[in-house]
Amino acid sequence: MSAWGDDWLVPEWPAPPGVRACVTTRQGGVSRAPFDSFNLGDHVGDDPAAVAWNRQHLQQTLGCQPVWLEQVHSSVAVQAVPGVCATADASWSKAPGQACAVLTADCLPVLFCDRDATRVAAAHAGWRGLAGGVLEATLKALAVPAEELLVWLGPAIGPAAFEVGPEVREAFLAQHPEAAEAFVVSVNAGRSMADLYQLARIRLAAVGVNAVYGGGLCTLSDPRFYSYRRASRTGRFASLIWLER
């Protein structure tokens, strides 16, 4: 159980004092099935009033102001601006109390902070965004030397559950040949099992970011989390990071 109750997660990583982070789960809200109960996505067909209640409860519980994005599987990273829902898949902030937030249900949430606790960021990395460079774009937007960054990989679909077609493997190998080690041949002809966690680590290492933590949780097999592959009509959980006020 986290400091905020329910079964929300607090990342285990050596983030400096002043950096806070949280990953919500399905528990603690008012959404009804199949979105039960703490759905934070306002684009999945849930009752808007329930989503609004859940988001307000999140803000009050954490004591920060989440800045939401309209996520489109892009490589766009923007500065978080309260009240502005930018079309992007990553945001960064240097303002205390403003939480960078991403919503997922199998895609990989990635949290960033610098060692001096002056800037934070959150990225939504599905395979398209990951291959398209969303992590590299986030690093560029942060404008912090790679060696000064800490990164945490949140819950995503695991390597034993994420079967992909040849176009996914080819997209990654075209940029980083070493990405071949993140794919295992599937029992289904022409397909592979992909490790999003390993692919993220490979891409981060390529730009000099080696202090990478987290990984290992599978949204498909862990019922605490929403999973689009488990049920296409489902909610979204949030991964958030912010600087203390």
Structure explained in plain terms:
This protein is of the alpha+beta class and 245 residues long. The protein has a single domain (19-158, 209-243), classed as CNF1/YfiH-like putative cysteine hydrolases (4-Layer Sandwich). Helices cover 20% and strands 24% of the residues. It contains 5 helices and 13 strands. The protein has helices at residues 48-62, 127-132, 134-142, 166-173, 196-206; strands at residues 19-23, 65-67, 77-79, 90-93, 98-104, 108-114, 120-125, 149-153, 163-164, 183-185, 192-194, 212-214, 237-243. The strands form 3 sheets. A 6-stranded mixed β-sheet has the order 3-4-7-6-8-12. The longest helix is centred in the N-terminal third of the chain and has 15 residues, at 48-62. 49% of the residues are buried. The model has no long low-confidence stretch (mean pLDDT 96).
